[in-house]
Amino acid sequence: KKWCGERAHCDRCGSGSNGGDHRAIVRRPRPDPVKNLVATAMSYEGVGGGFRDEPELLQFATERYVEAEASAVDLETDGLTDLQLCEQYCRECTVSVQRMFHVRSLGRVCADALRVGAEPFPLDLLEDLAQDDDSEVRQSVAEQLGVLTDAIKISRRKQEDDLALGLLNVAFLLVEDDSDGVVAAAEDATATVATLCTTGEERAFLISRVEELCRCEEEEIRISGSKIAGELAEVLGAETTASTLAPLLTELSKDDALQVREATVRATVRAGETMRGTDAVIQLFDIFSSLANDPVWSVRKACADSLVGLSKSVGQDAFAAFAQELFETLANDVSLQVRTGMLENLGPLIAELGRERTSESLVDHFVSMAESTGGSASGLQLSCAFAMPGVALTLGRERWAEIRGAYDMLAHSVHWKVRRSLACSLHEMARILGSELAEADLVPVFQEMLGDTDEVSIGVVNNLAAFMRQIPPTVRLDHLHVLARIATPKSDVTIGNWRLRAAMTEQLGDLSKILPASANEEMTIPLALRLLKDPASAVREACIAIIGSVLQNSSDGSSSAWRSGQIGRAMSTIKLMATNQHWADRQAYVRICGAFAGSINDNVLIEELLPLMLMTVDDNVPNVRSELAKSLANLQTKDIFAELPDVSAAAEALRNDPDPDVSRHCVITDRSKHLEFSTGLRATPVK
């Protein structure tokens, strides 16, 4: 778009008549779509009033209203393979969005072409795209290097021998890019591309390029070289890592740039995983120790964050001696950030060391996290609460007394996020400690958290059945009253915390499995019936999904149980919904019947509920009939229902329903058995 500079009246569009600038839009002619637009425009009265006839309007539209940058040169497609077509659009397409689509499709298209044919690998195209002016294009190429590597491996025998070196050159070219996104993607992909290097010459070239990166004058490139060196350790193997990469990491650990030394910490850990069991791994421990005493706190914090990763480099005994000594150094560092970082990783460190190798000193440090105060108290307490189940599992029930005080302090923390973390793991703690300790130490915490804020209590409710399963049966019955309190809204006119009630509703099915039938009849079934009438639709939906399981778990398996007692009364209440004046209750009844398939005995469903369900085929509310179509589709997946004449007749009546929404559900159900998907540049259908 540009200003044409005309200030006089324009006899074509009328703009500029008040002396203002006239804006003109210059585009290349695209006759076919414009002719269709003109034909449509001329058919409306008053459109094109400033034009004498259709040719004049056509000429004006094609000359002035087709943007040059939004058009593309018509490219030949006849006789081209998908790979050739994709390559053509990547090179010549002038529409940025369309070109970007083909660039992002290059990896998949290339993999398909090399898998089924003998087309040459488009290495020259990748080299050109890696130097494209658009950073998004370069980043897309870097992100697809892994897919392209896999494609070369599949068709290696059909391709040229220098593809590995060519693709490596592309990867290293992108590593030195000036865009952070391109560099990050290239760093991640370089190790994958390096798996193509199988000959000594290719490996020598790879190592030489990594050394060039690590010794480059630019700090950013040395950082990338350090990251790539760590990733390449697994590809090159223990021997090459010890002879080549370890000396290189030693050199980088003494670099003047602190960010290079930080990257070297993580690269050392990755290299140690490959060198596990070799004598040369001691060299990496020396590198790590020197970095742990670095004058810059951020480098020492990187060591604190990565210490646990060194456990994969040596045996547990050697790691325990090294880790405990280094832990004391970092946990008592002069920098608050380093001390905090080390303590936040103490939980995983204890889990890695195991019960026998975890000293009392480490446990004391863990307990001190729960006792922490000041500005970092929230973060340390949260890390302690998050790691508590893992530490309890590692120390076992025998050493639970050492951390019980820390658990109590965290349960009464002033920070609700700390209490919520404990609430979410309460069932796991009960499983770890066993029923006796859970009853003595966790049940009081359970009671307090249920009365806590909604953010905390929902963590307990989400795993209510799992926690109840771990405590003695008599104790379960003593706490069933909390279910009714949670399920009751605070008032009849407000929904209240429906998420809490929905979470509890989802637990009723599993709870009914571990409770005796008498408890289910007294508490669980009435509660489920109440939740069917909840003011929040999400709660009602959750209840519809589980009420069949609740009734089935409460019955003794006989048909008579469904006609008498609390279960019989529940069935009568559900049946009344089928004839309720409110259409939402009738719809809910149909949905319940559909959800009952697979939850209760099929004969009970056929004899007790199906007749009333099929009566809704003539319901005057389309929503009810629509729900019936969905539920019948669910029932007909089982032969016992599909063979019933009444079910088939109802399905046929719904298929011919006068309401299009109802009949459409039947059509969708029929078509779902014959889906077709399309993919590729030409959208070829694939069944």
Quick overview:
The protein is built from 37 helices and 4 strands.
Blueprint (SSEs and pairs):
Elements: E1 2-3, E2 23-24, H1 31-42, H2 54-64, H3 82-92, H4 96-116, H5 123-129, H6 135-143, H7 145-154, H8 163-175, H9 180-194, H10 200-214, H11 219-236, H12 238-252, H13 258-274, H14 281-292, H15 297-306, H16 316-331, H17 336-344, H18 346-353, H19 360-370, H20 377-395, H21 400-411, H22 416-424, H23 426-450, H24 454-461, H25 464-470, H26 473-478, H27 481-487, H28 498-514, H29 517-531, H30 537-554, H31 565-576, H32 583-596, H33 602-615, H34 622-635, H35 639-642, H36 645-655, H37 660-671, E3 677-679, E4 684-686
Antiparallel strand pairs: 1-2, 3-4
Helix pairs in contact: 1-2, 3-4, 4-6, 4-7, 6-9, 8-9, 8-10, 9-11, 10-11, 11-12, 11-13, 12-13, 12-14, 13-14, 13-15, 15-17, 18-20, 19-20, 19-21, 20-21, 20-22, 20-23, 21-23, 22-23, 22-24, 23-24, 23-25, 24-28, 25-28, 27-29, 28-29, 28-30, 29-30, 29-31, 30-32, 32-33, 32-34, 34-36, 34-37
What does this structure look like?
The chain is mostly helical and 687 residues long. Helix content is 68%, strand content 1%. It has 37 helices and 4 strands. The strands form 2 sheets. A two-stranded antiparallel sheet has the order 1-2. β3 (677-679) and β4 form a beta hairpin. α3 runs antiparallel to α4 (96-116), α32 packs antiparallel against α33 (602-615) and α34 packs across α36. It is flat and about 85 Å long.
Number of helices: 37
Q: Cα-atom Rg, whole angstroms?
A: 35 Å
| Cα distance spanning the termini | 46 Å
Total strands: 4
Which regions contain 5 or more consecutive residues with pLDDT less than 50? 1-51, 60-73, 671-687
Binned strand content: under 5%
Q: For the residues shown, what is the average pLDDT?
A: 84
- What kind of sheet is the major sheet? 2 strands, antiparallel
Label the structural class. mainly alpha
Question: Order of strands across the widest beta sheet?
Answer: 1-2
Bulk shape: flat
